[in-house]
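Worked Example 4.2. Consider the chain below.
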Amino acid sequence: MKRVYLENNWNESWKYSYKYDLLEEYGASGNKGYTYAYKNRKKQILTLLQSVVPEGAKILDVASAQGNFSIALAEGGYKVTWNDLRENLAEYVELKREYGDITYAAGNIFSIKFKELFDCALIAEIIEHVAHPDEFLKNIASLIKPGGYIVMTTPNGEYIRNNLPKFSKCINPSIYEDLQFKPDSDGHIFLLYYDEICRIASEAKLAIRKIRYFTNPLTHGYMKTGLFLKIIPKFLVDLLESFTRLLPQILQRKIQTHMIVLFERPLNSFV
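Applying the procedure from the previous section yields the following structure tokens:
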């Protein structure tokens, strides 16, 4: 991926995205907890996806924003379709792309019509931004070939400090429709729980192949550990993260801030 530098003539959405690229890709030191969490999430996504989807497969990257996952996957030999509501971000992604196969499909993923089904869809930090996560997952499932996969990351609803509503307790999710699709944590509507993931997967006729929890509040910079992260070596941060992933899953559900889920669309499924 090419390194780009801020230019005054960029539009506001490019400048907004560049602010995150500084933290996520270029190593700016403003918020180490955020950077560590992002890089950990990226590692989790690429490792899991590459373990089940062969090189050359067609990947749909939903709500991809500045396209860092799209670029990484394209550079890894996948045929990637980038998607986001903000059409003008496609040119920003292309500015950073060094090589690899990326097709751009801007628009609302609920309404876009694709000519072919995909081998895999990536929905990274998206489902918590929609008012109807169950319908969202069904829609994504309909875009995947039988035998294909969906890789999803999302904040963990069972994390002890989560204070957002539980989706299954909401009688009328439509009241949140005006709030959906907003970026950053301010746009989070629901954080899903393990039992909810299982239920909406079943409704979407998807099989759950793996669920892993990752990033504890200390390595994320929560619990006032931001200053602590500035002075300790990165290998100790990684060691602490590795230790918490060895805990029983019932404990991880309480202390890990994020989860990654691998869904498979069974060969005999009809969505």
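The longest strand covers residues 144-155. The chain has a mean pLDDT of 91. Compare this with Example 4.1 before moving on.
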